[in-house]
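Technical annex B. To support the medicinal chemistry partners, we prepared a structural model of the target in complex with zinc ion, based solely on the information shown next.
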Amino acid sequence: MTTTTEPTTGNRKITIFDTTLRDGEQSPGASITPEQKIVLARQLAKLGVDAIEPGFPISSPGDFAAVQQISRELQGVEIVGFARALKPDIDAAIRATQDAGLRRLHLFISSSQILLEHQLRKSQDQVVRMAREMVAYAKQFVDRIEFSPMDASRTGEAFLFELVEAVIEEGATTINIPDTMGYALPDEYGRMFRRVREHVRGSDRAVYSAHCHNDLGMAVANSIAAIQAGVSQVEVTINGIGERAGNCSLEELVMAIETRQEALGVETGIVLPELYETSRLVSRMMHFPIAYNKPIVGRNAFQHESGIHQDGLLKNRNTFEIMDPEALGIPRNMIILGKHSGRHAVMHRVSEFGIELQNEQLEELFARFKTKADVQKIVTDDELLRLVGSTINRTLERFKLADVQVVTSSRKHRVASVSIVDAVAGEERTNSATAEGSVEALIRCIKASMPFELEFIDLELQSMAHGEHAQAEAAVEIAVDGRPYRGSAMDQDVVLAVARACLSACNQAARALVAAEA
Ligand code: KIV
Ligand code: ZN
């Protein structure tokens, strides 16, 4: 029943059903415009997901239009129209997905006693009747029908079996058994699939799907348990976003499958190098920050603070890493140096800048580095370069911030003026700009000062401490000639932190351009 490329290794293929744009969008504050949905859907297709649930067509004209356009544009991926077991919902989902190359309808209805009594206000008999009628109705238009009994893991077995049997009889092709409230334990969740498949008549006429929420932090573990119990599809979201504590995270599940393939005997068609970019795009567009310690895509996920770990890692990556971040599209320079870093790691980073140091210079640099790292949590590339420069009495950065002035006002536009020294051109350039925000005005000035075209991609701001003396940490991403460069910096002044981070990224771009010419 899978629609995509067959496995290449003899492993069982798991269908990755992405619901970032439907269940994920139900995260408080994460909603996005129809245009943004289309951009994200394109990236999901590039990531290699098998099915995309792009929204809830009946819920708004915008969602309808987004599902419709995604169906028209992404002909190579299965598009899923989401609907309650109600005719108007089904009609909307059918119309919205009309032009898809391959489509499926996903119908759901509540099944647990507590939801029947207090939310749906229907009896079990009425629910079975509605489910039957609506699956039969939808089946006239679309062959591939997925059915979800909502809150299945808190539904008694007898009723769950009865409902599943009824919809299979009417032609449901995928049975999705959601752990809607994130309540199940892994062994219970896996057992539920085994029991349904053993006890429901006609169970082998459908394929099975897991859909787990993360309220108790078990969404990935439960999805793995379901895979071990034989399901062939898992419903996931990028960065695990979704209602309340979210859904099973695509990147965590896929990397668990990838890393423990021998134990699990399954594989996915996900294009691993697209994982990081997809995660960043979702986080940016949905204004949903990623926790530093989030597995796979969190900024600390591949950072090794301890000198022992860093040293081992530089000798052989497998000592302290079970995954290779670069294979997931995560740039190595995300590994940030801090006070626990050892000589070896600092030396390695300096050599990545193309700088060779004598032994005494390295000792001196390391002492300066440790002093710096003691007073702040991390030492950015930019600061490390300044330390190297002062150790060898040379300016290593092409661009240096000479001055920044920003005039902010609650009535008028913000005005910025930035002076940058360009060591290669041997001049100081000053540019001024106005904009609606201080950062925007600042960035316009920096762009105007650069000898190359740069695109400002992303800015992340964090407060590094509490109180009046809090330091702001800015992480900026720019692109030059389509290549991304990241810079980060800390300052007590937010605007200065942004300016320094941006200049650090510009300096990296300048170094890369020189290296490319050489
Ligand atoms: O969590 C859930 O139960 C759902 C469905 C309605 C599939 O998102
Ligand atoms: Zn859900």
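Notes passed to the chemistry partners:
The CA atoms of residues 335 and 444 lie 29 Å apart.
The chain has a mean pLDDT of 93.
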